[in-house]
Design a protein that fits this description.
Layout (H helix, E strand, L loop, with lengths): L1 H10 L15 H13 L2 H11 L15 H10 L5
Length: about 80
């Protein structure tokens, strides 16, 4: 399921077009997980952990400066339509 979420966010594909043949599971489940994890602060916490571990380069070095959740809020806040 995390792979399905990341695939949709990275490619910009619509949730209902998430290819099940790639083993991502239900698009609705992926969308709900993203919404729930975002609301629970999971993406923010993951970003903090990776930043502390040195896995994310600082923004000045061309790294990803914002938590994933803040970059995906517009996907999360819109209702899923099939």
């Amino acid at each position: 399921m995390p792979c399905g979420i990341l695939f949709a966010l990275c490619t910009g594909i619509q949730w209902e077009w998430l290819p099940q043949e790639l083993g991502f599971g239900s698009s609705m489940t992926c969308w709900r997980r993203l919404r729930d994890w975002n609301n629970a602060g999971v993406w923010q916490r993951l970003h903090e952990i990776l930043r502390a571990a040195g896995s994310l380069a600082p923004a000045a070095a061309g790294g990803f400066p914002a938590p994933i959740g803040s970059a995906t809020k517009h996907w999360v806040t819109h209702e899923h339509r099939t």
